[in-house]
């Protein structure tokens, strides 16, 4: 058996990441000759139908009052109990923060390793995984030797697309045995974030680093982002100098983005920044140093001072737009 | 009135890589011969938070690392930021497997005076296993919350804020508790000269590490294949503006 942990969105549907987990679990189940069991929290809703379409015929629903408002560690406790009871060959989950936390607790409770951020899983003697390190700039091939293999998968993990739908999904409600004496954190407040364009979803991000020079220097980046229907981003130097809020930071310890266009102004292209923007479809770099790593990796480059180039670009856009 | 908070922060020595990463000849590690070392930004914020909590409540702020003697450089950096004591759990490498690291930290916490709050980074900057804090919490049977961007201390409790589920969540945990934090929690201070001098002479307590092993073992590291075309140079200075706007128009982001 391969267990696939399914994160659900507010409507109860599997998230996109959970869909990829199911696909990988199906592939792995195929290789091992093992069936796939999806595991989720709560009520069935449309989940059995969704799973049937994905060719998954077994669903375990974990239900317990503590699971409703506990952080993911408690989900991990429930998962560990399920693993102990059913003895799967592997448990897969998405490499999202929440699922990773649940899997980390589960692996600790089971006394087995956990391979996080995997792009590939290769069953064999022993099993091997490929995982991302340092935000994905490096790949690590590792042995994963354990009685049950726990892994979280990053987007882009192997999938095979087409599958035959399952005729029927067997739904099994399991009430996990959660330790009543274990001290737990409890959710006491949940505020929805205001909607609107965020750094993570903007189609264009105009981003500035040390080369912008000051907090005021970002005015021209704001103006260009406005004209392009985009958001403003920054490097860690800008955050550390207090020029921009941390919410604007792109990179390993900021936000990972994949806009259609990333405009990198006065940013050298350190790996910790690069991993945040390397999934952009195209990059335009503006830098006084033609040898900067960002300039070499960009799609288009302009050699020059941010405060000469950007005002000229803004003026040119306005000129072409006409009066 | 908040409880007096004794806080411990677990930090990891990692290579400060630049724009390129060189690997060792056997490709099992980053070639650090020409590199400096640092701690990750998440952990820097954790140290800052611990120092502030200790100052505010009249408690203590400790730092701990698992690794060889060289990792004391990072403990001293944290001391120079204002931490008041440092512990190194001896291990042959600075990058042990997460199970080994967690066993070492959990073991040390059994030997050290008690802490109300143990802080971790959400993920280490090099290996990024994103799990050591949760393993330690599980071993010690403590409540744990990850992705934390705000900490408020109450009477025997701590309130932990994080972004999740498309919004902001606040979790309430009884002390002692564990949290894995994110950069953005605060703006860490730069060490003062006085802080650096004090840190230089401060003692580091060294504990023996456990003989733990893990079924997760690195075989080799490799670079992610990069498929990018040659960079097109659009020009120099302000004169490049028309070429830039041509590209923007071609992409359909301006009229
Ligand atoms: C563990 C770890 C995690 C990190 N996480 C992140 C992260 O999430 N995000 C992040 O950004 N960084 C991160 N960093 C920091 C990172 O290593 C770099 O220090 C940082 O990205 C550099 O920012 P920068 O490019 O703005 O500055 P610099 O590297 O100083 O580069 C400035 C660039 O601007 C150019 N320039 C100067 N003046 C001008 C001008 N007038 N016009 C045009 N160009 C000009 C220079 O030629 C240079 O290329 C992390 C570091 C570590 C160790
Ligand atoms: N060798 C180490 N010594 C002390 N703390 C560590 C070590 N490795 C990891 N940690 C802590 O655990 C967190 C998560 O690490 P990881 O699970 O490797 O992503 C880090 O941010 C540190 O706070």
TrEMBL record, chain A:
Cofactors = FAD
Alphabetical list of SUPFAM superfamilies matching this protein: Adenine nucleotide alpha hydrolases-like, DHS-like NAD/FAD-binding domain
What organism does the record attribute this protein to?
A: Actinomycetospora lemnae
**InterPro entries, per database record:** DHS-like_NAD/FAD-binding_dom, ETF_a/b_N, ETF_a/FixB, ETF_asu_C, Rossmann-like_a/b/a_fold
The entry's protein name is Electron transfer flavoprotein subunit alpha/FixB family protein
Which Pfam families does UniProt cross-reference here?
Answer: ETF, ETF_alpha
- Residues forming the Electron transfer flavoprotein alpha/beta-subunit N-terminal domain are 2-191
What family does the database annotate? Answer: Belongs to the ETF alpha-subunit/FixB family.
Instruction: Give the protein's function.
Output: The electron transfer flavoprotein serves as a specific electron acceptor for other dehydrogenases. It transfers the electrons to the main respiratory chain via ETF-ubiquinone oxidoreductase (ETF dehydrogenase).
Query: Self-association or partners: how does it assemble?
Result: Heterodimer of an alpha and a beta subunit.
Automatic annotation (TrEMBL), chain B:
Tell me the PANTHER family matching this sequence: ELECTRON TRANSFER FLAVOPROTEIN BETA-SUBUNIT (PTHR21294)
**What domain of life does the UniProt record list for this protein's source?**
Bacteria
Query: What is the name attached to this protein's record?
Result: Electron transfer flavoprotein subunit beta/FixA family protein
Cofactor(s) named in the record: FAD
Quaternary context = Heterodimer of an alpha and a beta subunit.
Location of the Electron transfer flavoprotein alpha/beta-subunit N-terminal domain: 27-206
Q: What does this protein do?
A: The electron transfer flavoprotein serves as a specific electron acceptor for other dehydrogenases. It transfers the electrons to the main respiratory chain via ETF-ubiquinone oxidoreductase (ETF dehydrogenase).
Q: Which CDD domains match?
A: ETF_beta
